[in-house]
Amino acid sequence: MFTKMKNIDTAFRYVRGFTMLVIVGCIIVCCYTVYKSLRSVTLMQDKVYILANGKALEAYASDRKDNVPIEARDHVKTFHKLFFTLDPDDKVIKTNTTKALYLADDSAKRIYDDLKENGFYSGIISGNISQTIQIDSVTIDVKEYPYRFNCYAKQHIIRTTSIVNRNLITSGSLRNVSRSDNNPHGFLIERWETIENKDLSVENRK
């Protein structure tokens, strides 16, 4: 009788131990599954598909801090190309300068207003002058915020009788703002000023 009870007790302990092992194993498997699922969701959120020419291209999102120097330089280049690319067409001038002024504060607006008041843009139109800019380099100091920058560029001014090449150096700072269709990089140029803008050469046109 006692032997039979002892065997039943031993069997019960074995069953209980086996059941505990199964439960612990299920918990481990469930935790691992949840972990892998969350990791997969996180990776998928960082993955972007771009449709180009009917083909889906895979891209990965990254933190803004990883791209600050690249985005900041492109913001400065975009602003200068818009502000200094001019043709003898009032609509072209207005379109380019309006886009440029979305990327900077009132320091750029003041320069624009001064040029307009002094008849610079009307002179472009009446003189059939075209102006382009070539950005040589942009330096960004990301160690301190707002980020200071210097832009080094060449201007090419095409008149009916000559082509003028000018050296252009500007400086300013960048602060973070919300991204929008008008400002996709999320930067705003502040305290923008021209350090140098002098003629390098003048070529007579035949």
From TrEMBL:
Highest taxon listed in the record's lineage: Bacteria
InterPro entries, alphabetized: Conjug_transposon_TraK
Transmembrane segments: 14-35
Entry keywords, A to Z: Membrane, Transmembrane, Transmembrane helix
Protein name: Conjugative transposon protein TraK
Organism name: Flavobacterium panici
Lineage: Bacteria, Pseudomonadati, Bacteroidota, Flavobacteriia, Flavobacteriales
